[in-house]
Amino acid sequence: MLHSVSLESHSPTVAEVDLTAFKENTQKLKKHVEKSMLLAVVKTNAYGHGIIPIGHEAVNAGADRLGVTTVEEGAMLRESGISAPIHILSSVIPEQAVDIVSYRLTASISSRKLARAISEEATKQGQHIPVHLKLDTGLHRFGVDPHDVVDFCNTCYHLQGLYWEGIYTHFSSADEGDWQLTEQQYTLFMETVIKLNKQGFNFPVRHVGGSTITIERKDMHLEMVRPGLALFGYHPVQRQQGIIKLKPVMKIKSQLLHVREIPANTPVGYGGSYVTSTKEKIAIVPIGHGDGYQRLLSNKGEMLVKGKRVKIVGTISLDQTLINVTGIPDISSGDEVILLGRQGDEEISARDIANWIHSVVDEVLASLMERVRREYV
Ligand SMILES: *Cc1c(COP(=O)(O)O)cnc(C)c1O
């Protein structure tokens, strides 16, 4: 009977993904951008929400395209039946050209080697596949240098099997609200595109921005925008909340395993990093840093029990976290506990969690491990 044993989780800890909220966020953003195409960024397992269900919901809600960072994510989406264009937004190695062509993924090209590899593979498979040129206008992560781009196009633009459908860049400081730097990058991008056009190198689809540009800078939408985080209900920065209303898509809930009374002056958890000051009621929640619930939340973070905020106490372990439920009446094992989301009048947002550990919302959402069961509602 060994084959019947699996690692499938029966833990009460569940990430609830609200597909209706996701759909509404996508539709709102699509309406907000009016004429441009919307590429829904579903990288990193859809920021932790599950790439397959989210990818399909995005397309159903009106996203024109999808964006991922790995060839594997793109291949999974294709195999699950997505026919919309799927962009690989990161740099990939030439060895991945076979999969890029086989799955008809739209690669971001910034190296001659990759351009040649995809060209050769497309020719071999009798294909003509779309690619986008990535320009580096200041993020200095990857992309062709604007000074080198004419040269680049002289060697790569006419390679067999490639269709240069688009050109794009990514801003370094839009979320920080540094419009001066962002506008400089934008100007450099537009000037470079014009320079290329004059040499006969045309790219019909130009795109520059993620959620922040989608929400705040209609003047930079061009032919396409690439929101990610906003689809999942979070504005990259709070100043955007007045512009468009979004609804968080993920809720994380669990159940109290044990509730115990611990005497005063007693150390609790690994290393005794928390010591009770009076007689206290301590409960165990079955989640830990092995689930992606950051250890940095030890003695800092909060959860919701019976509609009240309670503190995490002691050091978070791989699988378990302790909370102080002293003073909350009628509490017992089996009671619901909310780690992310609303309960009664209180709410813990991914931004709260990010603030507690000096991180960002994307990291909080995307770090939730696969072993935490996702439930789609
Ligand atoms: C991640 C990413 C996005 C989406 O960014 P958000 O700020 O989450 O909207 C857009 N474009 C590129 C190239 C990305 O890597």
From TrEMBL:
What cellular component GO annotations does this protein have? cytosol
The reply to whether Isomerase figures as a keyword in the UniProt entry is yes
Keywords in alphabetical order, please.
Isomerase, Pyridoxal phosphate
**Pathway terms, separated by semicolons:** Amino-acid biosynthesis; D-alanine biosynthesis; D-alanine from L-alanine: step 1/1
Q: Which CDD domains match?
A: PLPDE_III_AR
Q: Which GO terms describe its biological process?
A: D-alanine biosynthetic process
What reaction does this catalyse?
L-alanine = D-alanine
Q: Which SMART domains match?
A: Ala_racemase_C
What GO molecular function annotation could you give as one example from this UniProt entry?
Answer: alanine racemase activity
Q: Known EC number(s)?
A: 5.1.1.1
Residues with the N6-(pyridoxal phosphate)lysine modification: 43
> What Pfam families has UniProt attached to this entry?
Ala_racemase_C, Ala_racemase_N
Keyword Amino-acid biosynthesis set for record? no
Domain Alanine racemase C-terminal, chain residue ranges per copy: 249-377
The entry marks the following residues as binding substrate, namely 141
- Active site located where? 43, 270
Q: Which cofactor does it need?
A: pyridoxal 5'-phosphate
Protein family per UniProt: Belongs to the alanine racemase family.
Against HAMAP family, the record matches this protein to:
Ala_racemase
Give a short account of what the protein does: Catalyzes the interconversion of L-alanine and D-alanine. May also act on other amino acids.
Tell me what this protein is called: Alanine racemase
The protein's organism comes out as Virgibacillus phasianinus
